[in-house]
């Protein structure tokens, strides 16, 4: 098909690769953070909660700017990575993954926190009474009873990563086949007055968002009836 050009497919490949890797890594980070925020008491817990939630209200351009400054080899952290590990994160796929994990953090942690909070406390206490460790209780009691929250968090984090614009543009740039994702490609094609290709990218993101929300609606409805 004529519209399935290599450039179009490469951009979609980078977009979905970024979303899959981000969601996969975010799941483990999100489980750890949600567990800490729900089940563990420690000083400055509210500060951690605020940090996790900040990407919800912070303009993406602000987040992107600070990532750009932090990762730049001209500044301390970026220079440290470059000198000791030969790693450069600005305008690279790896930098894009790290930035995506941070700006999608609340979209994974929020649903997990709600799900973990809803697990009946007597189930957790029975597990401890039977001599199971906190880690085993997390694996065998808390996570299996949080399936809806895990599914919701994963789907929303995936969709948010696919559609993010500001942070991705500032830290990833426009390198075709490497860091150029569909949301940025729409902007680029509009600037080039190539409305056909812009529409193709836009339609893919529109259809994906619709499908994800539809699936979430049916899954939540099904479990609501069962509950």
Order of helices and strands: HHHHHHHHHHHH
Low-confidence residue ranges: none
Tell me the fraction of residues in β-strands, as a range: under 5%
- What assembly state would you assign to the polypeptide chains in this entry? single chain
Largest sheet at a glance?
Answer: none
Discrete helix count: 12
Mean pLDDT: 90
Taken from the alpha-carbon principal axes, the silhouette is globular
What is the SS-derived class? mainly alpha
Tell me the helix content: over 70%
Short description:
With 227 residues, the protein is mostly helical. It has helices at 6-39, 45-53, 60-71, 76-85, 93-103, 105-118, 121-129, 134-142, 147-163, 166-172, 182-191, 195-226. Helix 1 (6-39) crosses helix 9 (147-163) and helix 9 (147-163) packs antiparallel against helix 12.
Q: Explain this structure to me?
A:
With 227 residues, this protein is mainly α. The protein contains twelve helices and no strands. The chain has helices at residues 6-39, 45-53, 60-71, 76-85, 93-103, 105-118, 121-129, 134-142, 147-163, 166-172, 182-191, 195-226. Helix 6 (105-118) packs antiparallel against helix 9 (147-163) and helix 7 packs across helix 8 (134-142). The chain is globular and about 65 Å long. The model has no long low-confidence stretch (mean pLDDT 90).
